[in-house]
Write a structure and sequence with these properties.
29% of the residues lie in helices and 26% in strands. By secondary structure, it is α/β, with parallel strands linked by helices.
Length: 496
C-alpha cells in the first residue's frame, strides 16, 4: 500500500485530465505522475531509504503537490511544515522531526540548520530539472515503493489552539481511509473542480481536499492562500464545482449582494476548521439554495470522522459517522453515555493516527486503555446517530462555579445583525474565578449597542452565561487554517 498509488491510478485512467490548475496553467495527471516520479528518483539517488523523513515547507503551489507525491513514491515520510512559521518555530519542528532532506521555498532559512547532523540535503522546491541534488531526478515514470498499511506516510504538526505542536504520525491506511470516505461522502467525480486556498500542510487542505480530489481524479483549483478577489475571479469563471472554506470566509461572502451568481457552477460547499454557527448555515441556504456541509475531524483522525450528508442534512450537526469509523460519548471516567447525554467524543477506526512522534506520554494520554481516541471535544449523539459539537473541553469557562460552553453563547450572538464574527472566552477574575468575555467583529455599517445586546442575551440564556464584557475588534486572531486562536485573545485581555 502507498498513498501515491492513488495518483498513479488517476494517471492511468485519466492521463490527459487536468489534475492541477494554478496561475493560468494546468497540469495533466500523466504529467503530475511523471514529475512526482522525478522527485522520487532524485531522493532515491541521494541515498534516502523508505521510512526516512523528508520535510516539505512552502506555500501552496503545484511544486508542493509534485514533491509530496514524490516523497511518498520513494517510500519516505512527508513532514509537512507551515511556510508561515518564523525561523525559530521552523527550527523547533525540524529539530524534532530530524528530516534527512528538505524541499522548500525557504532555502536560506534551512541552510542555517545544515550543521545539524541529521540534515543532509536542502533543496529548492523551484529548481529546474537537473541531476540528483536538485528536486528532479531522471526522467521516466517509476512505481511507488510498496509500504505496509501501518507505515507512516506523513507527519503533520498540530497544537490545535491550546499549546505546543505535536507531530501526528498518519499511516498510509489512515490517509487512504479518510480520502475514500471524503470522496464517497461528497460524491466526488473526475468532473469536479475543487477550490483549495487552505494551506496544504494542514490536515484539511492536505487530506480532505487534496488527497480526496486526487483519489477521485478531479482537478484542484489551487491558490497560494486566501485572497477574496482571487477567489471571486475563479468562481466567476464557472469551473469550480466544490467550494471549501472556513467560517470566517462564509461570513464575509454572505455580506455580498448577488451571492448565488458569484458562486458560478458551485454545487457543493463545505466548512471546516471550526463549527459553523447555525445562523450562518440558514442564511447561506436562503441566499444560495445550497447547504453548507460540515463534518467532524482533526489531524489525529486524518480528517473525516463524521459527515453531514446529502440525504438528510441537519443544520447545527456535523452528521453521522463515516464508513468504518465509530463514535462514542463518554464521561470523564471513560464510561459510555446514552443518547442525548453530553460528554467527551471518543473515536475508533482505521483513520486514527499511529501516535505522536517521539512522544509516548502524549500518545498514551490521547487514548483510553481500550484503544478509543479521546478527542478533547464535548458532544451529544441524537437518537438518529447525528453528532452535535458542544465545545472544546479546554475552552469551557467556569464562572461563579457554573460551567459555560462558549459555543452556546456564540451561537446566540451570531443571530444579532450587528455581529459578523465573535469569540467568547473566559478571563481570570478575582470574584468569579473566570468572567465571560465576548470579542466581536462588527458587521460593516453597524455599531454595538451593549445594553441592547445584554438584554437580548438575557432573554435567551441563563444569566451566568451572559458575557460581562464586550470588546469590539477589527479582526480575530487566527491560525493559517482559519481557526480562531482563543489563547491569543486571553493574553490580550488583562486579568480582573
Amino acid at each position: 500500500m502507498n498513498v501515491a498509488n492513488n495518483l498513479e491510478r488517476a494517471a492511468r485512467f485519466f492521463p490527459s485530465h487536468p489534475a492541477l490548475s494554478f496561475a493560468g496553467r494546468e497540469i495533466a495527471y500523466s504529467r503530475l505522475d511523471e514529475e512526482a516520479s522525478r522527485v522520487a528518483s532524485a531522493l532515491l539517488a541521494m541515498g534516502l531509504a523508505p521510512g526516512d523523513h523528508v520535510a516539505l515547507c512552502a506555500a501552496n503551489c503545484p511544486e508542493w503537490i509534485i514533491a509530496y507525491f514524490g516523497i511518498l513514491k520513494a517510500g519516505t515520510v512527508a513532514v509537512t511544515l507551515s511556510s508561515s512559521l518564523s525561523f525559530d518555530e521552523l527550527a523547533l519542528l525540524a529539530n524534532h522531526a530530524k528530516p534527512r532532506a528538505v524541499l522548500t521555498d525557504r532555502v536560506s532559512d534551512f541552510k542555517r540548520l545544515e550543521a545539524a547532523p541529521w540534515l543532509e540535503h536542502v533543496i529548492s522546491l523551484h529548481d529546474e530539472p537537473g541531476p540528483a541534488g536538485s528536486m528532479h531526478g531522471a526522467a521516466g515514470r517509476i512505481n511507488a515503493v510498496d509500504r505496509s498499511r501501518t507505515d507512516t506516510a506523513a507527519i503533520l504538526y498540530t497544537g490545535g489552539t491550546t499549546g505546543v505542536p505535536k507531530g501526528v504520525m498518519l499511516t498510509h491506511e489512515n490517509v487512504n481511509v479518510s480520502a475514500h470516505n471524503v470522496a464517497f461522502s461528497e460524491r466526488s467525480t473526475e468532473s469536479d473542480r475543487a477550490l483549495c486556498f487552505l494551506p496544504l500542510n494542514h490536515v484539511f487542505g492536505q487530506m480532505h481536499i487534496m488527497n480526496a480530489t486526487i483519489l477521485s481524479a478531479g482537478c484542484l483549483e489551487l491558490l497560494p492562500s486566501f485572497n477574496l478577489d482571487e477567489v471571486l475571479d475563479i468562481l466567476k469563471m464557472g469551473r469550480v464545482t466544490k467550494l471549501f472554506a472556513v467560517p470566517t470566509v462564509y461570513t464575509r461572502l454572505l455580506s455580498m449582494a448577488g451571492l448565488r451568481e458569484k458562486l458560478g457552477k458551485v454545487r457543493y460547499c463545505f466548512s471546516a476548521a471550526a463549527s459553523l454557527p447555525a445562523e450562518i448555515i440558514h442564511q447561506w441556504k436562503e441566499q444560495t439554495g445550497i447547504d453548507i456541509s460540515e463534518g467532524y475531524g482533526m489531524t489525529e483522525s486524518a480528517s473525516a470522522v463524521t459527515y453531514n450528508h446529502y440525504y438528510r442534512h441537519v443544520a447545527g450537526s456535523v452528521g453521522e459517522t463515516v464508513p468504518g469509523v465509530e463514535v462514542q460519548i463518554r464521561d470523564m471516567s471513560g464510561a459510555g453515555l446514552g443518547t442525548g447525554e453530553e460528554g467527551e467524543i471518543c473515536i475508533r477506526g482505521h483513520n486514527i493516527m499511529k501516535g505522536y512522534l517521539d512522544n509516548p506520554s502524549e500518545t498514551e494520554g490521547a487514548f483510553w486503555p481500550d484503544g478509543w481516541y479521546r478527542s478533547g471535544d464535548v458532544g451529544i449523539l441524537d437518537r438518529d446517530g447525528y453528532l452535535f459539537i458542544v465545545d472544546r473541553i479546554k475552552d469551557m469557562i467556569i464562572t461563579g462555579g457554573e460551567n459555560v460552553y462558549p459555543r452556546e453563547v456564540e451561537e446566540v450572538l451570531y443571530t444579532r445583525p450587528e455581529v459578523q464574527e465573535v469569540a467568547v472566552v473566559g478571563i481570570p477574575d478575582r470574584e468569579w474565578g473566570e468572567r465571560v468575555v465576548a470579542f466581536i467583529v462588527a458587521r460593516q455599517g453597524h455599531s454595538l449597542d451593549v445594553p441592547a445586546m445584554k438584554s437580548f442575551l438575557k432573554s435567551r440564556l441563563s444569566p451566568f452565561k451572559v458575557p460581562k464584557e464586550y470588546i469590539v475588534v477589527e479582526e480575530l486572531p487566527k491560525n493559517a487554517a482559519g481557526k480562531i486562536l482563543k489563547r491569543e485573545l486571553k493574553k490580550a485581555r488583562p486579568k480582573g
